[in-house]
Specification:
single chain, 385 residues, alpha+beta, HSP40/DNAj peptide-binding domain, four-stranded mixed sheet, three-stranded mixed sheet
């Protein structure tokens, strides 16, 4: 099993902020859209999401740090998977020649999984793509999810209507069979799945024609999902009970939606903040003006551009960014990056006026003037005469 910290490329003492930052970078790097048809990148993307789901949760992270698993160890896992029932049962069988007793395999209660016990259905995961606007406002989507569901024709028993499964005569319903071998060192007991019922503990004479005796059928489940405002690329949404159907009356698994937010031509996202461009003419930048900035969800917003604004200057519109997930009324900011539109074609009159202005400002207007570069240096150093 790969180390989750190595998957997210962070040290084991990384803060939650470090983990989130690295996760965002890796999601962008390995996203399937950036590597179309690359199965390795797709697999890496899934592992990164799975690692983040553990390390971003303090409780799961603590269990992982202590036990190497977000679920913690079972009794057997704590000792390298050793089955103490098997160990002591076989040991006393070898020493005392087997037989029933507190330390025989029967007396130790060698626990076997009951094949008829309820079992939880498997989880499902799928990618859901939304636009940046949908991510900002929230959206409801109708999904079609292929999954295993309980067969209605046989009531998930696997037997044809009017009949019912019988206890497997080979294993007696245990789903397992034991083989005892005598050796020089005593008896060895091998437990294997029953070859007749394949571990189900049941024998079906007439199989259900709808499910073929499986008890479940493959169907497309239709589901409406509400995506909350504020999701971003890589966000995992859990839909309880929307996964595979359980077995023997067990609960259904869950559905996990991995969000993919498509790029937007006008806005670039950075967490809850948005960045856009504000194009100004040179006179507007020099003299100052009232400009309109396009926002993602609130239409156009007026903003004051101060006189002397330079190319690359950033103006902030507070609270006009993305909503923060699960934080009501909390939004990021919108940053407008100023771009100066310098004309490339001038009329004779425009050229004349600009040349006159350059002279008035004592700014060099032509590289052909004597001492041009010296004048430029003095101009930017504020040493012009």
């Amino acid at each position: 099993m790969e180390d989750l910290y190595e998957l997210l490329e962070v040290p084991r003492d990384a803060t939650q902020a470090d983990i989130k930052k690295s996760y965002r970078q890796l999601v962008r790097k390995y996203h399937p859209d950036a590597h179309p048809g690359d199965k390795d990148a797709e697999e890496r993307f899934k592992k990164i999401n799975a690692a983040y789901s553990v390390l971003s949760d303090p409780e799961k992270r603590a269990r992982y740090d202590q036990f190497g698993s977000a679920d913690g160890p079972s009794f057997g896992e704590g000792m390298g998977g050793m089955d103490f029932g098997d160990l002591f049962g076989d040991l006393f069988s070898q020493v005392f020649g087997g037989g029933r007793g507190p330390f025989s395999s029967e007396g130790m209660g060698r626990r076997q999984a009951n094949p008829n016990a309820p079992r939880r259905g498997g989880d499902l995961e799928m990618v859901l793509r939304v636009t940046l606007l949908e991510a900002a406002q929230g959206v409801a989507r109708d999904l079609e999810i292929p999954r295993w569901e309980n067969c209605e024709a046989c009531g998930s028993s696997g037997a044809k209507a009017g009949t019912k499964p019988e206890t497997c005569p080979t294993c007696g319903g245990r789903g397992q069979v034991q083989q005892t071998q005598q050796s020089l060192f005593g008896q060895f007991v091998t437990v294997t799945p029953c070859p007749s019922c394949h571990g189900s503990g049941k024998h079906i004479h007439e199989k259900c024609p709808d499910c073929g005796g499986r008890g479940q059928v493959r169907r497309t489940h239709k589901l409406e999902v509400k995506v909350p405002a504020g999701v971003e690329r890589g966000t995992r949404l859990r839909i309880p009970g929307a996964g595979e159907a359980g077995v023997n009356g067990g609960p259904a698994g869950d559905l996990y939606l991995v969000m993919d937010v498509t790029a937007n031509d006008l806005f670039e996202r950075d967490g809850a903040d948005l960045h856009t461009r504000l194009i100004l003419t040179w006179p507007q930048a020099v003299l100052g003006t009232e400009a309109e900035v396009e926002t993602l969800t609130d239409g156009k917003e007026k903003i004051t551009v101060p006189a002397g604004t330079f190319h690359g200057h950033v103006l902030k519109l507070r609270g006009k960014g993305m909503p923060r997930l699960n934080r009501a009324r909390s939004r990021g900011d919108l940053y407008a990056h100023v771009l100066i539109d310098v004309p490339t074609k001038l009329t004779d009159r425009q050229r004349e006026l600009i040349t006159e202005l350059a002279g008035e400002m004592k700014a060099p207007a032509s590289t052909n003037e004597p001492g041009f570069f010296e004048k430029v240096k003095k101009f930017f150093n504020g040493q012009d005469e």
